[in-house]
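Action item from last week, closing it out:
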Amino acid sequence: MNELILGIDLCDTYSQISAFSPDKPLPEPFLMSSDEASCLIPTVLCKMRGRDEWLIGSEAYRRALMGEGTMVDKLVKLLHKNGSATIEGVQYNAVTLMGHFIEQLLAFPREKYKVREIRCVAFGLTELNPELLDRLTAACDQVGLSREKIRFLSHTECFTYYVASQPKELWPNLVVGFDLSDTGLDYYELKAIRGRKPQILEARREPLEEAFDLDILETPVGERMADTILSNCADRMLSKKLVSSVFLTGEGFTSVAWAPDFLKRICNKRKVFGGQHLFSDGACLVAYDSTLPESAYPYICICEGRLASSISVYAVRDGKNEQLVLASAGSNWYEARVSAEFILDDVHTLDLLVTPFSTQRVETISISLAELPARPNKTTRIQLIVSFASENHVTVRVIDKGFGELFPAGGQVIRKDFLIS
């Protein structure tokens, strides 16, 4: 292994790391000890008192409790809010703190595999937000991870790739997942839409109201209550569905001995799997796949973090009227920003074609170009920029670029925001 390929599940309570090794079919989770639960690394940071030394995880907790340093937790939430923390009279912004955490997190696989260089790191996150991702990008840049070496994925996408890496006999029908943690209970559902080429994998996540504090599992009465809650949840979510496999993850499922009734319900004619590193493994698979000349997953993935529609425009190129695809269904919205230039030929509106993956119904979004300077035909050059704030929120900007010295650019910018399905 000359360069590390990693998947990191980055959450407010715990983070996990998986590494891809070419001689193994699946990623390998990083364990702090022989216990599988030791893959859960507390997402906390501690600055040692009086010196520029930073610790993370359980050791950060321990040293802070001993009074040897100052601890900061909820690092993802702090980054989302663009907050800060004051340590020993010095204010550290959230990007700097996350940078220190990532640097220490990367030190674990670097030490284990004796490899310094990193080829690609994919981060799995519960939710994707453009401001959060921009700040996380800045934190990665702080520790020498350029934008080309990082990927950002939703947990839903991590789940999708993890399932897609399993033998196909495990997912002929619906595949579902339950993620139980201190931050909530999430339900995942994946289905393969057959009869299309390439095949479509559609997945969704649903936060469930049946969430409970994991502290109740510390008493027999609380265990029985939690088992009842999850059993009712399973009845509600799986009723009348043809489910092939069920995956359980999250620190709440480190042990399932407390949930016999829940297990009885989900094991009924289904295969059930448990493991703590599902999301980091899924992220690692995407990281590895991004390094290949051709994807090992011949699917269009439609899920949180991926576009469900294609966006295109008709334009004349080399004398032929062509449909130019600006963004394809299944693309990662954060990476789908595109820029193209056109010369207007008797055109007064820009018509974008939006085609949802699930149908061939085409919606036209028309953008008036009336704000551009009046010029003779074919003497106005425009730059078209399409970007996304989520898989549903599209921003289109049309910028007047003029036409050489005869018609200087006026600087006008036309902006339109709209939602797609």
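Closing note: The chain has three domains: 4-152, 158-280, 309-419.
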